[in-house]
Amino acid sequence: MIGIALGVLLVAWLPRLISFPALTLLLALLLLLCLLPSCRIFLSSGGRIQIAGLLFGVVYASGWGYLNLSQRMPMDMSAQEISVSGTVTGLPQNRPAMIRFSFDVDHYSPTLPGTDLKHLQLSWYHPEGEIVPGQQWQLKVRLKPPRGLMNPGGSDYETRLFAEQINARGYLLSARLIRGPGESGAQQIAYLRYRIAQWLSRLSLTDSSEATIRALLLGDKQGLKDDQWRILRQTGTVHLVVISGLHIAIACLIGYWLGSSVQWLAGRILPGQADIRAYRIVPALLLASSYALLAGFSIPTQRALIMALSMLLPGLFNRHLGIWTRYQLALVVVLLLQPLSFYQPGFWLSFAAVGALLLSTAANPVSHRLKAIVTTQWSVFLGLFPLLLFWLGQVALIAPLVNIVAIPLLTFILIPGVVLGLLLCLLNAELGSALLNGLLNQFWLLLQVCAPSDGQAVLFSRPALLPVLLGGLAALLLNLPRWMGVGFFALLMLTVLIFPPEQPVDQGGFRATVADVGQGLAVLIETNSKSVLFDTGAAYRGRSTARFTLIPMLESRNISQLDRLIISHKDNDHAGGYADLAETLTVNGLDSGSPAIRRRLPAQPCTPGDSWEWDGVRFSYIQPARLKQTNENNRSCVLLVQSENCSILIPGDIESSVEQQILNEHPGLHVNWLVAAHHGSRFSSSVEWLNGLRPDWVLFSSGFDNPYGHPAREIIDRLQLLKLNWLNTSDRGAVIIQSSADHCLTESYRDQKKRYWSAG
Questions:
Q1: Closest by Cα among 84, 90, 319 to 190
Q2: Cα 432 vs. chain centroid, distance in angstroms?
Q3: Phi, psi of 532, rounded to the nearest 5 degrees
Q4: What 3-state class would DSSP assign to 566?
Q5: In the beta sheet, which residues pair with residue 738?
Q6: What pLDDT score does 483 carry?
Q7: In angstroms, rounded to a whole number, what is the distance separating the alpha carbons of residues 653 and 638?
Q8: In angstroms, how far is CA 313 from the centroid of its own chain?
Q9: Is 200 strand, coil or helix?
Q10: Extended strands (E) in 527-662
Q11: 499 with 519: CB under 8 angstroms?
């Protein structure tokens, strides 16, 4: 089984799928190992099984990859308008003036070359109808490939879409309902979940209570507010509200207890019924499976249910399997169902938590109940500690103490209380709603009391892979029997996570990251001890791209404050992320070229001619003092960053007239990197500007297939005519440039993280 898991993981790590001829050869070798007894001469039975498992894992995962690539819209294809008919699946996500939903395709036209669309993610802006699971629609949609933004530290949305088998994304142009939801069919469970959600919305519940019940009962997290997520993270109790293995385990325990009660009664009435395992195991698995279906059978619930099945089914069929064999079986089944689980934090956290529990129970058996609870929480905390820092960048240090109290309360008070309250709502809606509101208000009040203020007792760190591996080894050693004598040594090993070795920029050099923020601009410049952010990306419908691009990137670099934030001008695609950044980070200085920004925010003007030096790197504003053509774009700050060997120029959205003024005022100016003005607009990046600066690289920050056509075709033609290199964030993800004493290095993040499903 380990061989199968390794084979699946190997394919998930490949930058390119194995070719069909090579797969055919591997399949032949697999058959040879399985069928020919002569192989036993060269390999032991165990070795042959593991090699066969490895080959099977590689062939299976490669086939899964080829199948999903054949259904996905080509990643370099521009947006297409098509007519599509099919069925709404899953719960729709309701947002201000928009509904997002999943759609299974029955038929579409015109056909797209090289693809066979099956599953879409669609948005309906200002919807004119209700989206219900199981409905059949005839839609006209505008589709784009399922691309994601690629930045250091950011979530890999593109991988998530591929893992969920989303073949394309788009929005509705027109819609015609063909048939409403049926009483039967594949979407019957989803329709039931929708009806329950609608019923909850009609009760007299507070927003907090309704969101919590939807999360606990239906696995629908969209109603939880930012403050609630903050409390859950600070107390290490996200797993209490978000459906996880804990909830499936509770369902199993309740079913097991009910089955035991039935078994006890049967034993009193019918002789010989007292020791039939089916009485306990079948109700446990039925209740866990029903709960997983009610929660939408999402990937986390699938993972938890598979774990429960692997642990309980062997006993039902009187098959003796060791506990670690069952653990491996669950691991393999999860990977076969979802070969890209390797890239999901929940996969690692789930199996690490269960592994820590099993290891702790086997190595340190205790009979005292309270001591067992404390030991269990400590073991799980240690097991998850390295992974939480690696995947999430933070660990709530008080989590073991909070969970010692919170998990029993959830199991014996909250969940039974919610079930009782919902049943009471069927008889008396007002009384049941009052009970639910009171119960859930007390739950959140308790967590709020436990939550430390302003991030206290929360460890923030983004360790590299090697410290995480050492931390995982330390957690393993600390869960081994005490006679091993390695406890103190293991605790010392954990310090590599608490105090990870930093990788500062060399003195006298700088690192600049042109972030992939879609159609917008954000450039992070780091010196040995300082950091500057030029622009903040855009905001759409109240949420900025900074939340899932810039802020995670800053956290991954362990940057908690910006020494200077420059907002070049007031356009949304440059200034939209300011509010989220200011709420999350300390901003020591704010500059802007826009009078409108300076009236609204405590910003200073980026005065032409001003300059300063940090860590041997010189920063200068070089925009003209008197503009020939005054408009908001031409008011942009123009920042020149120079080390001894390398330089980058960031001109905001200036037009060609301002470019000419800068050339006249700074004759002989040469830069290594030029961020193209106005994302590559045809009104900027003139031939004189490009020929005068002669940059080694021109960097475009634009959205894929954006409606403005950036970068313009004539700009690309100019670069080709002048034989200049260029990179575009929409194609290559974030562009990372490094200035040091001996080189000026240019890299793209998408190339660093290249996998077989990645664009580019």
A1: 90
A2: 37
A3: -130, 135
A4: strand
A5: 511, 745
A6: 45
A7: 9
A8: 33
A9: helix
A10: 531-534, 539-540, 543-544, 561-562, 564-567, 586-587, 590-592, 604-605, 611-614, 617-621, 639-642, 647-650
A11: no
Taking the CA atoms of the chain, what radius of gyration do you get in angstroms?
29
| Backbone phi, psi, residue 590, to 5° | -130, 125
How far apart, in Å, are the Cα atoms of 219 and each of 9, 21, 719? 28, 43, 51
Backbone φ and ψ for 587, nearest 5 degrees, come out as -110, 110
Burial 56-94 (b: 16+ CB within 10 A, else e): bbbbbbbebbeebbebbbebebebbebebbbbbbbbbbb
For residues 159 and 338, what is the distance between their CA atoms, to the nearest angstrom?
12
Nearest to 639 by CA among 673, 598, 597: 673
**pLDDT reported for residue 34:** 78
Where is 678: in which H helix or E strand? Answer: none
Which residue has tokens 């591997």?
26
d(C-alpha 193, C-alpha 367), whole Å: 42
Distance of CA 3 to CAs 330, 331, 545, 636, Å?
14, 11, 41, 57
The H-or-E segment that residue 682 falls in is none
Contact 193, 294 (CB under 8 A): yes
> Hey, what amino acid is at 415?
I
Residue-wise pLDDT for 32-90, tens only, equals 877 766 555 555 666 778 888 999 999 999 999 999 999 999 998 999 999 999 999 98
Cα four-point dihedral sign 132, 134, 140, 144 = positive
Return the DSSP state at 549: T
Tell me the two tokens of residue 742: 């001996």
Q: CB under 8 Å to 44, separation ≥6 — which residues?
A: none
Nearest alpha-carbon partner for 54 in 73, 39, 84, 34: 34
- Write down the pLDDT at residue 637: 96
Unique residue bearing structure tokens 């404390």: 374
Could you give the CA distance from residue 168 to residue 104 in angstroms, rounded to a whole number?
11
Tokens at 634, concatenated: 């031409």
Q: Identify the pLDDT of residue 44.
A: 61
Q: Which of 93, 105, 99 is nearest to 139 (CA)?
A: 105
- Integer Cα distance of 760 and 733 in angstroms: 9
d(CA 43, CA 48) in angstroms, rounded, equals 6
What is the DSSP secondary-structure string of 297-351? --HHHHHHHHHHHHHHHHHHTT----HHHHHHHHHHHHHHH-TTGGG-HHHHHHH
Is-contact 664 650, C-beta < 8 A?
no
> What's at 122, amino acid-wise?
L
Q: How far apart are CA 33 and CA 611, in angstroms?
A: 70
- 8 A C-beta contact, residue 82 and residue 143: yes
- The residue with tokens 């591996």 is 469
Contact 112, 80 (CB under 8 A): yes
CB 146 within 8 A of CB 158: yes
**What DSSP state is assigned to residue 203?**
S
Question: Residue 314 to residues 277, 310, 319, 322, 325: CA-CA distances in angstroms?
Answer: 11, 7, 5, 10, 11
How many whole angstroms separate alpha carbon 117 and alpha carbon 80? Answer: 13
Closest CA to 640 of 512, 466, 731, 746: 512
Q: How far apart are CA 53 and CA 407, in angstroms?
A: 38
CB 643 within 8 A of CB 508: yes
Which tokens in the block code for residue 243? 């459906």
Q: Which of these, 531, 744, 747, lies nearest to 619 by C-alpha position?
A: 531
Per-residue model confidence (pLDDT) at position 752: 87
The distance in angstroms from the start CA to the end CA of the chain is 34
Query: How far is 528 from 506, CA to CA, in rounded Å?
Result: 6
Per-residue model confidence as pLDDT tens digits over 292-335: 888 888 888 888 899 888 888 887 777 778 888 888 999 999 99
**C-alpha closest to that of 7 among 68, 64, 45:** 64
Q: Which residues of the chain have pLDDT under 50?
A: 483
Q: Is the dihedral of CA 259, 262, 268, 270 positive or negative?
A: negative
